[in-house]
Amino acid sequence: MRDALPFDPNDLVRPFATLGKQDTALVGGKGANLGELLRAGLPVPQGFVVTAQAYLDALDTAGVRPKVNAIAEKLDADDSAALTAASAELRKLVQTVGVPATLRAQILRAYAALGDDRAVAVRSSATMEDTAGSSFAGMNETYTNIRGQDALIDAIVRCWASVWGERVMAYRASNNMRDEPAIAVCVQEMVDSQRSGVMFTADPATGDRQRIVIEGAFGLGEVVVGGQVEPDTYVLAKDGPRLLTVRVGHKTHKIVRGPDGKDLRVDLPAAEGTRRVLDDAEILALAALATRIEAHYGSPQDVEWAADAEAMYIVQARPITTLGDADATTAAAGKSDPGATANSGRVLLSGLGAAPGRVAGKVRILKSAEDGGQLLAGEVLVAAMTSPDWVPTLRRAAALVTDGGGMTCHAAIVSRELRIPCIVGTREATRVLRDGELVTVDPAKGQVLEGDLTAADVHIQVNAPPPAASEPVEAIGTRLYVNLAIADQAAAVAALPVDGVGLLRAEFMITDALGGAHPKQLIAEGRRQEFIDKMSASLLTITRAFAPRPVIYRSYDFRTNEFRKLRGGEAHEPHEENPMIGYRGCYRYVRDPELFLLELDTLAAVREQTPNLHLMIPFVRTRWELEACLEIVDKHPLARQRGLLRWVMAEVPSVVYRIPDYARLGIHGVSIGSNDLTQLMLGVDRDSEICAELFDESDAAVLDAIRQIIEKAREHGLTSSLCGQAPSNNPAFADQLVRFGITSISVNPDAARSTRRVIAESERRLLLDAARRR
């Protein structure tokens, strides 16, 4: 690579060697970091940056800057149709601007200094990008193997236009970035990459800052960054550094520089695609570079690397913006040994890590909940999938591994609440694993590994309570509730800084209290009072722990296929081809109120001792069925108890139109079930691993429905809440709910502290924005 490029300090084009991290406002995060790394003596290919001011000057020269800002300022980013139209208009405006003659001359002079028609990478570098607060990872454009003056100028203009892409605009809105966006463009010598990838100076999955994680593939790095292939993964301990684990990925293809100088996809034979990308010495060399970069910045970094036939280069670095609190992660998962994978066994299978922790145990494969007695305490339960009737069995499991499911399936939800490690969606766990073999379940990597890879003194305490408070509790205006299903955890969860229980799932409590029997089977056996007694005992454990804070009990929402699996269920349940949208929820109470009345008897008995218990009715489709259901409640002695709140779940899209009707019927609040709402808005079965990538609670259509529900509830005097999975997994989703004006958010207990921080930060930003507007 060449020495530093010459430059005129008055130019709008700056060589990397003249830049540092203090120049982010001028050249964006990527440009500033490349300059910083080069000046720190790291192996960075030479190049230059077309500054952000150059982009703004080009808009001014063309006279379109006021129009661009006017379109952006009036845009509602939550209106997906408007966002699409505005993005298209803004991109077209910028692309017609062109590059002013003076700027063009400066760019071509810098390009010529790199060498005759040198192949370069042209990368967007927005001034809000690649900083500690936001990454914009993969959102703005990058073009590789650009060669020639005209191609270079065209790529720069396309990078300018990318600042108005739909995803970028939505990301700015979700992060409350209101300043006029400006974009710089990095032009960097292309590495003729034979191998490339990404490395993290802390484990992004677990927050472990004593690890380095390196991913690598053949050819250009976009196949790794874009998730096009399964890369090799190398995990190292920082002390040394020393290599802990090697996982060779299945690399189906690579992208290289073709004979015409442009990107070319080359399919890889199986033998080539499963070959290691890096040998041990190369891994350690990259780790040494990673350590130097982290030491230079003083914080964990996300680094892109590339290697040609001669050397390795660093082509980008940025702070890791998704890194959680390592201590909190360890506490939530059960303590683990930083070097525990040093003697790693082979990976037996992989899936989606759904509940944190790391534990070893013997495998027990079960075909149904009826076989639950075979599971011994501390064994790893392996099943095709679980349903609510598995709860008593799950209590004894050290971990759970399933063939199917996603982050919102029953196995995932219950495992998180019971605090047992869980991996779902492996597709072949019941076929690959064998009864009695010793395995380690590691959800952080989504892997089941052969043997016991945990030290004897660091095994997870199954069902461990949440960690004790170690930080001051900040006051918030939005109420923070928790989701519960199991009474055993009530005392520990009630000690958290929460305002009550926003979702108490009846069906899990029923199967737990009744030992897997269908409630109607108990009634048929003359054991009606046994149901009331056992359910009351469980409920009182929760209501007493949380009193006087409210506990919102969602009446039973079994689907018929789940009910049929309970003991005696086949005698009482019809067969349905699609039970997910079939005979369930409110309509079931109207058609056959026997079990619902049994629940009302139980609630009335519990409320006589603890009046903080309230009723929530699930899966309400129409006004008439809710009206009929409320008539059942009104005729019951429960209705005569003072202070009873009546909520409905907002899971069916029709609720958007029916909130005025529900308010007139005497409903006090709505709780958005984002899992079912997403399913019905997007038409995707939330339990399907085949369609898992379609299930997105942050989809613009889903978010717009949520916004309308919250706004209409407020307009008609109802409280609004949300009790789906999204706020527990995604802080940005919780932030969005606060911006919409939601009354409360209900999350899994292990996410309560982090969600409280997100709510507090969101409320502060709203207050600051309001103050600025005044």
Question: What can you tell me about this protein's structure?
Answer:
This protein is of the alpha/beta class and 774 residues long. It is built from 28 helices and 29 strands. Mean pLDDT is 82; it is low at 129-139, 322-344 and 456-470. It has 4 domains: 13-189, ATP-grasp fold, A domain (Dna Ligase, domain 1, 2-Layer Sandwich); 195-319, ATP-grasp fold, B domain (D-amino Acid Aminotransferase, Chain A, domain 1, 2-Layer Sandwich), CATH 3.30.470; 328-458, Phosphohistidine domain (Glucose Oxidase, domain 1, 3-Layer(bba) Sandwich), CATH 3.50.30.10; 479-773, TIM Barrel. Helices cover 37% and strands 19% of the residues.
The fraction of residues assigned to DSSP E strands is 15-25%
CATH fold description of the largest domain: TIM Barrel
Q: What is the helical fraction, as a range of percent?
A: 25-40%
By CATH reckoning, the class of the largest domain would read Alpha Beta
Q: Indicate the radius of gyration in whole angstroms.
A: 29 Å
